Amino acid sequence: MANIATTKMSSKGQVVIPEEIRKRLNLKKGSQFVVVSEKDVVILKAISPPSMDEFDALIADARKKAKEVGMKRSDIEAAIADVRGRK
Q1: How far apart, in whole angstroms, are the C-alpha atoms of residue 82 and residue 26?
Q2: Which CATH number is 7's domain given?
Q3: Is pLDDT above 60 for 21?
Q4: Using CA atoms, how far apart are residues 15 and 4, in angstroms rounded to an integer?
Q5: Which value, in Å, is the radius of gyration of the alpha carbons in the chain?
Q6: Measured between alpha carbons, how far is residue 87 from residues 75, 78, 84 in Å?
Q7: Domain count, the chain
Q8: Domain residues for 56?
Q9: Residues 57 and 41 in one domain
Q10: Which of 9, 10, 28, 34 could crosslink 14 through cysteines, CB 3.0-4.6 Å?
Q11: Which pLDDT value is given to residue 2?
């Protein structure tokens, strides 16, 4: 069941998430969110970094896919150099 509460935005664009909701979702200082907007709707989705096991799996999958398409380390280094050169 969704909890509903009201809040206000400060002059700095800050919004307070009501305490009851913070506690229920175990949100702490420094919690990070993805912010999505569509017309007059704003959605905050709490996010957290992947665990080391999840990160290792992501890296293994990325390496496998890169190998499948024939990508080489030099391709990655060239892409990084290209992006850094644009700044």
Answers
A1: 41
A2: 2.10.260.10
A3: yes
A4: 15
A5: 20
A6: 19, 15, 6
A7: 2
A8: 52-86
A9: no
A10: 10
A11: 67
Strand-pairing partners, residue 32, are: 47
Token pair of 27, please? 């949100």
DSSP-H helix ranges across 1-87: 19-24, 52-68, 73-86
Of residues 21, 46, 18, the one with CA closest to residue 32? 46
pLDDT, one tens digit per residue, over 44-70 is 999 988 899 999 999 999 999 999 999
Report the distance separating Cα 53 and Cα 61, nearest Å.
12
Q: What's the CA gap between 21 and 19, in Å, rounded?
A: 5
Together in a domain, 6 and 36? yes
Structure confidence at residue 87 as a pLDDT band (50, 70, 90) = low
Whole-number Å distance between alpha carbons of 43 and 37: 6
- Are 7 and 44 contained in the same domain? yes
Dist. CA 46–CA 10, nearest whole Å: 21
Q: What value does the mean pLDDT take over residues 12-33?
A: 94
In this structure, the answer to whether residues 4 and 40 fall within a common structural domain is yes
